[in-house]
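Attaching the record inline, Q. Sequence:
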Amino acid sequence: MSSSCSRPSSLTPTPPRVARKTLLAFGSNIFRQCAPPPPPPQPHALGSTRPLLIAPPALLQPPPSSLDRDYIGITATASCSLAWTSQGLVHVWGHVAAWLSVEDEGGSDSVLSYACFNVQGGEDGALRKVAVSGEDSPRRIVVLVGTEVRALRPVVETRSSRKRSRAGDEEEKADRRVRTTDVVFTFSQPCLDVAVSTTHGAAVTTRGRLMVWPLGRPEEVVEMSEAETTADRFVSVSGGRLHLLAVTSAGEVFTWGVNGLHGQLGHGACETVARDVPTCVEALLGLTMVAACGGGWHSAAVSADGDLYTFGSNAHGQLALPPSPDDPSFNPALPNPVDMDFDLEPGAHLLAACGSRHTIVSNGKNVYACGWNKYGQGGGNGREEEVDMFRRVQGLDLDGGTVVKVACGAWHSLLLVETASP
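Structure, as predicted:
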């Protein structure tokens, strides 16, 4: 009989490996929307910094103090970036004054550039998603907490307090904090996804139904209604500037909203009248699509095979489709496959996001961009204002990590990178 001198494993538990989360940003930084959010002194905090009149496009990485935050999601508006944690903290940085609709204090030398607020978890879970439109408007904040959809209205409160200075004089100090109030939804079905455009919101219920509603004034009650569609079951929804896209369990893509003169709905024609009813993109039938996203005037859809289809405006190369002026069959208002192998690993899906006039995709290890690049939102040094084919973003230091989320503001891009701790 043999024996072991090692301790029982129950007495020496192995600590769980905690993934490190890193935010990377590039593009327009004129409002510091690409700068790292500062460590907040407390939830509901506000911060001010000197504004940047001009900033060179650069890849910016948060300081070590912010790497330990348990980020689970990212999104962006025209001039703000947002990231949220599993604890329900929502960090907003950039032109926060416009986002919160408050006037800056301190004249032209200061700008409200940071806000943090807490979204309390519900009975069925914690904060899962924050949906904002591309415009800087706080009345268009919708969150998914567990399976509960909430509309939030941030409110800035100013509290005055008197403190004695080192010289012994009393000074009055104004402490500004942000809190949120819930807007009433006339809706109680549990949901698994939510999205907004500038004018409308949409949610997918756990039963696969698609609910839609117009975005009104903050104090109004939000009235949802079920969309009339031919789909059996929806699984996800996303928003562009003035249009929305939804994916079904069968891999179909439905779009609705403003199509305009660019064809971002993917139905093959430009329309001056908005589509109120979600309509299936017939050109994608027969393919299994797993995700779709919208930008300013274009859209992208990802197939289960890792192929990317783009449609809408290609004025700045954001569709990554070669110009075909002599090909009468080419129609940018229909989904067209992008001729590129993104080198996906088995079981992985391509991540995609659309900005105002640029597109970002990632296979997890590399990031690719095309479209308008004046501010470096497509990576590089910004010398090429337009990039009409996908190219790999150079200079990214993922430190062995994996890109798990991508997001675009109008003129900047965000990445959430996850690195396993040793």
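The mean pLDDT is 80. The CA atoms of residues 44 and 274 lie 38 Å apart.

More tomorrow.
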